[in-house]
Amino acid sequence: MTTQKNTGSDDRFENADLLEEFDGEYSADRTGEYDDAVETPEFLQPGTSPFPEPDRDPVGSDWELEKGVKYLVALDVDGTLVDHDGAMSDEVKEAALAAAAAGHHLVISTGRSRGATLPVCEQLGLESGFAVCSNGGVTLQLDPSLPDYHRVIDAVTFNPGAALDALKDALPTAKFALETADGHFFATERFQDRSFGIQAIGTDIHQLADLDAVRLVVYSSEETPEDFARAIDAAGLHGVAYSVGWTAWLDVAAAGVSKASALEQVRRYLHVDPAHTVAIGDGRNDVEMLDWAARGVAMGQAPDEVVAVAREVTTSVYEDGAARILRSLV
């Protein structure tokens, strides 16, 4: 697997210039000042839940465990492995550890950046293997022998200029953040989110348009989720892949990029039969992944369009639905 780009430029050199430009303004001795200015979206604050109340009973299928088979198991994080406060239950952790001990290939597959994905891998004791980050934009190989315990083996970038032009007109009060292939985040209005994994560097929308991105994030505190979704439709995004979240939140990636596209590369690398793939997720950014897997499982609180592509439905994140599926692999 190799790093892919949609343009001939190397974003690492561009990022270095921008980092140098902002180094003085956002130096280490101003960290506290920056933290005070960080805005936490309402749906990430303690006591608020982005998930609708679960109202589905589990729905099984005719899937059966094949003895001796090592499955590729793709696991979404937020709303699947962890709840809306970012907490992982002991039951989920123990079930994941048991599935890994049985020899299955557990692959974290998330919209989070690498900095916010690696702690989940560590929590599950996944020292080797692979992780898909940024909705498929970045794929990591985990290896304890490496200096940082991982390396990027694939990063698919795109130029966000056209998308930014369309979105800033459709959503004039929105905040924007951009993740680059080298792991940095740049954001307007000091937009910060725990899925970034690191502190974003403040910039403006014009400088964002000059960078290559693995992920562009759009968030609005002014629109309802319904109005936000209508604005996205009206923007008419072309040449990119995108998914709308639970709230007024949008992730944009290069055309053709999804969790499924990255997982397919991992599957081929591991020589796992397509029939031996399992995926568990709850969000709209999991649709392609659940459709890709031979056993696609939707969480109990997933919206209708996610459930529609799944082969099974487990219980909600509040009832350790992921653990229920992981236990079935042991």
From TrEMBL:
It comes from the Bacteria. One of its GO terms (cellular component) is cytosol. Transmembrane segments: none annotated. Residues 1-58 are annotated as: Disordered. GO terms for molecular function: magnesium ion binding; phosphatase activity. InterPro entries: HAD-like_sf, HAD-SF_hydro_IIB, HAD_sf. Residues 17-26 have a biased composition (Acidic residues). SUPFAM superfamilies: HAD-like. This is HAD family phosphatase. It comes from Kocuria soli.
